[in-house]
Amino acid sequence: QVQLVESGGGLVQAGGSLRLSCAASGSIFSINAMGWYRRAPGKQRELVATITTGGNTNYADSVKGRFTISRGNAKNTVYLQMNSLKPEDTAVYYCNADIHGGLGYNEYWGQGTQVTVSS
After folding, report:
1. 73 in the Ramachandran plot: left (φ > 0), alpha (ψ -120 to 50) or beta?
2. Would you give the distance in Å from CA 30 to the centre of its chain?
3. Are 18 and 86 contacting, i.e. CB atoms less than 8 angstroms apart?
């Protein structure tokens, strides 16, 4: 059973910083790309940032220059450093990963962590 567990969300004032973490566990052969998505109230889920095993990154235009995605040395963790946070960054943030659990690659999602930015 593969699981993604996020942590690090919370309440922060505008201009502040938060760091989200996500760890994959379970029967894992390999992990391909990992990433972060978010869903704001009343909106569809959107991509925030992704990172490949080779370290190539991709960011939504709205977070470029403020957010940084990275992976841990063990490659089963992914982080999202969020600086200069804005009220419009308020959302539930979800970790996502392409994981090979023995029967090919499948997409997995974490349970989500709430980020609230006050003005």
Report:
1. alpha
2. 18
3. no
